[in-house]
Amino acid sequence: MASAEPVKVKVFIGTMFEIGQNTGDRAGEYQHWYEKYWKDAKSIEVPGALKPVHCNQDGVCGSVLGMGKVNSSSSMQAILLNPQFDFSQAYYVLSGVAGTPPSRGTITDVSWATWLVDYDLGHRWAPEEGEPGAPVFIPRKGYEAYRLFHLNPTLVGWAVDLSKDVALQDSDSARVYRMRYPDAAAQAAPSVKTGTHMTGDTFFHGPGLSKEAQHIAKLYGADDYLITEMEAAALALVINRQHGTDRILSLRGAVNFDQGNPNETTQQHLDPAPGQTAGGFAETVSNITLVGAPVVDRIVKDWSVWQAGVPDRKAR
Predict the structure, then answer these.
(1) Are 239 and 248 in contact (CB under 8 A)?
(2) In this predicted model, what pLDDT tens digit does every residue of 152-190 receive, in sequence order?
(3) Which residues contact 92 (CB under 8 A, 6 or more apart)?
(4) Which of 205, 211, 248 is nearest to 230 (CA)?
């Protein structure tokens, strides 16, 4: 019997975790995407991937890849190499929640990455072993080809154009929590932003490491550090080795600040008392899909234009 033709993937949406079921309970990163695109889709098992892949008849596919660089990238590679799929012309939306520095963003913001930077590839030492106040990081030679990725500016521009007017959800608890921070960006209403997404398996936290993340971004010539997350640079590396990076988007929603407010220590912020968390998680995971879906839908709707590559934005 002849084998079935592989699924021609137009857009692949990769999230990192789901809290419970794919639908009908508290939503994590995958649920809103699942309910929009795959509620009636069959699960496709992929050896080596954390979770099954779902695909609809329009060629929109997605999966939960796992948290952290190794976990997520091993799933991504297994899916990319599986003969059940044809990724030769696919676009990618790498989607999840994240943290943001209060000087540049706020809770329930949604951000498109302009650059992906790996936080971990370099040399570090204890602050007391270096010059007082100086950075405690230097890059290591040999990692130049995969410590950062400049995402396709035309594709990012399309994403911003298509999502900039989306009405973002917010919550009363998030509004109250923002006021703990003196920064204008932290106190602002949520919006769609762009900037560098910093990928680190270490859940780095506090003003000192936030400053270090910005130092690394500028050291590498990237845009301002805006998002801290744990997967995107590793996923981009796996995709790049098969298909390049021209069709990759990284989309993150901020559910926490990367440091405490001036009246709490970093440890207090990481281990808050009951009722002292930021709030806004449910609104943020909803916002991510609200912001990302117009891009997915445009690619599918105008596939004849997008199939061969990212069109000039004048094509709008």
Answers:
(1) yes
(2) 999 999 999 999 999 999 999 999 999 999 999 999 999
(3) 11, 12, 13, 14, 235, 239, 247, 248, 249
(4) 205
- List C-alpha distances in Å: 57 to 8, 52, 65: 10, 17, 21
Of 63, 60, 108, 156, the C-alpha closest to 286 is 108
Residue 64 neighbours by CB under 8 Å, 6+ apart: 15, 16, 17, 18, 29, 30, 50, 51
Beta strands 11-15 and 123-124 are unpaired
Q: 119, 258 in Cβ contact below 8 A?
A: no
Which residue, among 293, 113, 147, has the nearest Cα to 216 in the 3D structure? Answer: 147
Q: In the numeric block, which tokens belong to residue 9?
A: 């993937």
102 vs 258: CA distance, rounded Å? 7
Q: Are 284 and 255 in contact (CB under 8 A)?
A: yes
Decide: 229 and 72 in contact? Cβ < 8 Å.
Answer: no
Is domain 7-114+148-194+226-255+277-315 in CATH 1.25.40, yes or no? no
With H, G, I as helix, E, B as strand and everything else as coil, classify residue 99. strand
> Strands, DSSP E only, in 39-105?
43-44, 53-55, 60-64, 85-86, 91-100
Q: Which among 113, 133, 98 is positioned nearest to 208, based on CA atoms?
A: 133
Alpha carbon distances (Å) from 15 to 94, 193, 243, 286, 288: 6, 19, 19, 13, 11
State pLDDT tens for residues 257-296: 999 999 999 999 998 887 788 899 999 999 999 999 999 9
Q: Which residues of 172-193 are buried (b: 16+ CB within 10 A; e: fewer)?
A: ebbbebbebbebebbeeebebb
pTM: predicted TM-score of the whole model, two decimal places: 0.95
Residue 34's SS3 state is helix
CB 64 within 8 A of CB 12: no
- Which residue's structure tokens are 């929640």? 97
User: What's the helix, strand, coil split of the chain in %, to 5?
Assistant: 35, 20, 45
Q: At 64, give phi and psi (nearest 5°).
A: -90, 120
